[in-house]
Amino acid sequence: MTGRYAIYVLALMFAINFLNYMDRWVGSAVAPLIQAEFDLSDFNIGLLGSAFTLVYALAALPFGLWADRGVRKNVIGCGVALWSAATLVTGLTTNFIQLFFTRAVLGIGEASYFPAATSLLADLFPREKRGRAMAIWSAGTAVGIAVGFAGGGILASRFGWRVPFFFSAIPGLLLAGLTFRLREPLRGAAEKDGPRLKRAYDASLQTMWGLLRIRTLRYAILSQTALFFVLGADAYWLPTLLTRRFGMSVAEAGTLAGAVIVLGGLLGTLIGGYCADWRRKRSPRADLEVSILGFVLAAVLVGLGLVAPAEWFVPVFLLAVIAIYLYSGPYTAIGQNVVVPSLRSSAATITLLIAHLFGDSYAAAAVGLLSDVLGSLQLALLIVSPALLLVAAAVASLALRSIEPDTKQMDLTWARRISDAV
Fold this sequence. Notes:
About 80% of the residues lie in helices and about 0% in strands. By secondary structure, the protein is mainly α.
C-alpha cells in the first residue's frame, strides 16, 4: 500500500481512537450529575466505570482471536457500530441498573478495537517509523478524554447529563461505515524479511497464552497493569476531585480536566514516540528507557499535584500527564516488535485482558470505596497513585536485558516461516 493510503488509515484509526475514549469518559464528566439524580455513593458511581473496564478486558479475548484469524477492518467496524449504539442507549436510561448494563455493553464494543487496530497499523508502518505512528494514533486517546470531559461537562451543565451521550454516538456510525471500506494490508507487509500473508491461522487460546513466555512482553504487561490502575482511577475521579477540592462546577471541572489531559496527553504521547524512535538509533532498549523515565517523573509530579494549592495544581498536573503519556507510543510498539505479525492482535489482547482485568477494571470502584472509608478522595488518590507508578517503573526495568534478544528472535522466527499462498 502507498504511503498516502497508510496515512489515511492512520488518520481514520486516530479518529476512531478519539471517539473510543470520548465515549468512554463522557460518563466520568457527568458523574456528579448522575450521582445526584440517583443518590449514589462514591462506590456506586465508581462501579459504572468498573463495569465498562471489566467487560472490556474479558471481551477482548474473542475479538483478539477474531482479529488474528479474520479480516481486521471488519472486526473494527462491527465494534465501532456496537459501542456507538450502546452510547446512544445510555442517554435513554432511567435507573442505575440500566446505566450499569449499557456501560458494560460499551465495553464489549470497544474491546474489538485495540487488538485489531494495533495489528493493522503495524502492517502499514515499518519498525523504524512504528513508534511515531503508534504515538500519533495513541494521541487520539488524550484528545478523546479531553473532549469527553470538557464537551460532556459543558453539554451536561446546559442540557442535562443525557445529551452528551447522544452527541457522541452518531459519529461512530459514520466511522464504522468508512472502516468497512478499507483495504486490508497483508500480515507482515511492513517487515524486512519473511512472508506476506493474506490470512493467518496461528491464533488460538494456547498460542495467545504462550506469548507470555516472551520475557519483554510479560514484564511490559505487568508494568501496564500497575499503570492502568493509576490511569483509570485518576482520570475517572479527576472531575469529581476538582468539584470537591476547588468548588468548581461540573462544566468548569470537565473543561479544566479535559484541557490538562488533552495538552499533556498530546505532548507526552508525541514526545515519547519521537524520542523513542530517535533513541533507538543508539539503543535497542529505547522504548523501555523512555517509558521508565516517564513513570518515575510522573510518580513525583502526581504526588505534588495532589497536595499543591490551587494556583500550582494545573501546571504540576500538566507536567505529570506529559510524563505519564511518554509510555504510550513506545509500549504499543514493544507489543508489536517482539511478536510475529500473525499473532500481534493476540499480543494486544493478552495485554488488554491482564492489564485491565487486574489493573483498572476495579480501580474507580476501589478508590471510591477507599474515599468513603477515609472521607477524603484526595487522600485516597494520594495513597495509591505515586506508589503504583514507581511499581510500573520497577517492573518495566526487568525487561531491559531481554528486549533486544526478543526483538531479534521475532525477526528470525518470521523470516524462517514458509510463505503461504496469497
